[in-house]
Design a protein that fits this description.
Blueprint (H helix, E strand, L loop, with lengths): L1 H12 L8 E2 L1 H8 L3 H13 L3 E4 L3 E4 L4 H25 L2 H17 L5 H18 L4 H15 L9 H19 L3 H32 L11
Antiparallel strand pairs: 1-3, 2-3
């Protein structure tokens, strides 16, 4: 089940499985080269994490990001990340800094890669989790990982604007420099600003999509016919 769980999440990150898509477990089992049982178990686990959902007699679907849920998740993430900064700064050593810097550079490289939006979601997650890892709190690290997954695995990368993506990369550099200088107050301020700017962009794009849907409801034929 763990292998199926990990591989299905990877397919979501690569957007081989997209938000709203129906998940046919027979096809997934064939693609993954395994039996149906671990695939169904993995889908049930993803449902418990609120990344996929199921409908009676219809099957499983990839979840779609909701602006209210995204706001709550990112607010929780901000509280946890900023809370950890003092412990992160105390625990920093050269090896940990190299790990953070490496994750930051990988995120920067993804900006120029084909289909970069897909890779940026993975690399943004890795950068922040690498910082959080330095606090040594495995519970919060795991919980923050779930927060990222509940947001990014249900978010459509086409909503991302290039301007915001470039700004985020610059903000990563400033955060890294503050951590390297062991400047706790500046690091806390920069992380908070970075998360809030990201939230404004992400949640704003979801509300914009919601408004477009309300203005353009799906066509329903009249009872009288065409």
């Amino acid at each position: 089940m763990d292998v199926a769980f990990r591989k299905i999440k990877e397919m979501m990150y690569r957007h081989e499985l997209v938000p709203g898509q129906k998940l046919l477990y027979q096809e997934l089992a064939k693609k993954l080269g395994m039996s149906i049982t671990p695939v169904i178990q993995a889908l049930n686990r993803l449902q418990l994490l609120e990344i996929v959902y199921s409908e009676r007699n219809k099957g499983y679907y990839v979840g779609e990001a909701d602006p209210v849920e995204a706001t709550e998740l990112i607010t929780a993430r901000e509280a946890l990340e900023t809370f950890l900064v003092p412990e992160i700064v105390r625990n920093l050593d050269e090896e940990k800094l190299r790990g953070i810097e490496s994750a930051m550079k990988e995120h920067g490289k993804a900006l120029s890669a084909p289909q970069h939006r897909r890779f940026l979601m993975i690399n943004d997650t890795n950068f922040h989790l690498k910082i959080i890892e330095c606090a040594g709190n495995r519970v919060i690290h795991t919980f923050c990982g779930h927060i990222f997954e509940r947001i990014y695995l249900k978010y459509r990368p086409e909503y991302m604007r290039d301007q915001r993506l470039n700004e985020a990369a610059q903000e990563h550099r400033l955060i890294f420099e503050a951590l390297k200088a062991r400047d706790e107050k500046r690091a806390t301020r920069l992380i908070r600003q970075h998360i809030r700017r990201g939230k404004d962009h992400l949640v704003g794009s979801l509300w914009q999509d919601r408004r477009i849907e309300l203005k353009n409801p799906p066509y329903l034929p009249s009872p009288g016919g065409m």
